[in-house]
Amino acid sequence: MNIKDAAQVFSDIVEKMNEVSINSSRIIHRMEIGQVVRQGDIYIHRVGDSHECGKKLESRQLAIGNTMGSRHVAEAPATIYEGATLPRWCDARTFIGPCVESAKRFVVTHPEHAHVELPPGRYQITHQMDARTMDRVQD
Length: 139
Prior knowledge:
By secondary structure, this protein is mostly beta strands. It has one helix spanning 6-22, and strands at residues 25-27, 36-39, 42-47, 53-56, 73-74, 79-83, 96-102, 106-109, 115-118, 121-127.
């Protein structure tokens, strides 16, 4: 009989989770305005084409930071803009991220979470907030 200690079991679970996350994708076939999909600590809101965005950004990263957890990346053909306005359904204290737009399907990748493939459209990124402090949660 092969008995593992708790540390080994935990290690095995983490390894399996990483295999699943790295090798899987969530394919969203249709997303209506007002619908939201989550990838780790970011929320991807489908907004209307008239949703205001700021200036075009060079970076494709959707979360602030340089840790592995902040590596949410909107791949080409998506174009990334500064976030200018929160979706009307968000609390005013919500931490706003970039605005993403694409005329074709695109993928938001992450090294620790399943990739998310999205249909064409405009999307506003927001960040998970700690309900007690209203600070941004970071992966």
